[in-house]
Specification:
Blueprint lengths: L2 H9 L2 H11 L5 H8 L9 H6 L11 H22 L7 H6 E6 L2 E9 L15 H6 L6 E2 L5 E2 L8 E4 L2 H12 L7 H16 L6 E4 L5 E3 L2 E4 L2 E4 L7 E7 L2 E14 L5 E7 L1
Parallel strand pairs: 6-12
Antiparallel strand pairs: 1-2, 3-4, 5-6, 7-8, 8-9, 10-11, 11-12
Helix pairs in contact: 8-9
Length: 273
């Protein structure tokens, strides 16, 4: 997969990618997120800097890649201009970026908005991969393979969480306590596990937590989708009873293992029982 395809993957589903980013990192407004993607400097987009991400591969583009490159940067230029002129709160990034805003110089308060779908055909190419399919392929986070192989993983989904570092752990705890994260059965258990790990001051870097809905355990093996992982050593189940002022009566059992995936990576995974 080349760099152009990776950038297109980000722009293919801006609203979902924005929401995922805010789950995993410090929250930004939609306007701030777009300005980050467009490398805004001194109040305007720096597309030269964005192009530099593509490197020398720009010289190899032909056919479909050349058309995709032109369409992508035409979109960025249009969105960048609209962003400079925009004075409204952006409520949906996909809707904002699908629109061209034509303003007459004499009356900037009136806008004629038209949808130009033909310019954004590539927007429908990529979406989040169903989580079981991604995990079965060994993609526990976003993964770009050979050719057009690409997995976009919702790392803060209903039954799956990935935590990159202690900051992402702290962010989940903060949002849970502020009720910005729904208090579901799984999220309650994730919260209890994270608090326990923080108390231990270890094991809070680069790991996943998986709900029982996503895997089957049998004979010291876990099956996720179509992939079977043999677990190293015995399954040492831990049990917690947890309660604080943010939640009450949480009981959770879990075991933690390192999986050798089809991608050649070792994944640190906590399986909730």
């Amino acid at each position: 997969m080349n760099n152009l395809t990776k950038i297109r993957a980000v722009w293919s589903n801006l609203e979902d990618n924005y929401k995922r980013y805010c789950k995993e990192e410090t929250a930004l407004t939609r306007e701030e997120y777009l300005k980050t993607l467009l490398a805004f400097e001194c109040g305007k987009p720096n597309l030269t800097l964005v192009r530099s991400v593509l490197g020398n591969e720009i010289n190899t583009y032909s056919g479909d890649d050349a058309k995709a490159y032109d369409a992508l940067f035409s979109t960025m230029e249009r969105v960048g201009k609209a962003l400079v002129d925009n004075a409204d709160i952006i409520s949906n990034l996909d809707e904002f970026c699908y629109m061209t805003i034509d303003s007459k110089p004499a009356d900037k308060n009136k806008r004629q908005v038209s949808i130009v779908l033909s310019d954004y055909n590539f927007y429908s190419v990529y979406s989040c991969t169903p989580i079981q399919a991604a995990l079965a392929a060994g993609a526990f986070t976003d993964y770009a393979g050979e050719g057009d192989e690409y997995y976009s993983v919702d790392t803060q989904g209903d039954f799956y969480k990935y935590f990159k570092n202690s900051q992402s752990v702290a962010l989940f705890i903060y949002k849970y306590r502020k009720d910005d994260i729904e208090h579901t059965v799984f999220n309650d258990k994730v919260y209890a596990i994270l608090i326990e790990l923080v108390k231990r001051k270890s094991g809070i870097e680069d790991f996943s937590i998986i709900a029982p809905e996503l895997y089957v355990y049998q004979n010291n093996r876990v099956t996720i989708g179509g992939a079977v992982y043999k677990l190293p050593g015995n399954k040492a189940v831990e049990a917690l009873k947890f309660e604080d002022k943010y939640c009450t009566g949480i009981e959770v059992s879990f075991f933690r293992k390192t999986l050798n995936t089809a991608r050649g990576r070792k994944e640190d995974v906590i399986f909730v029982r």
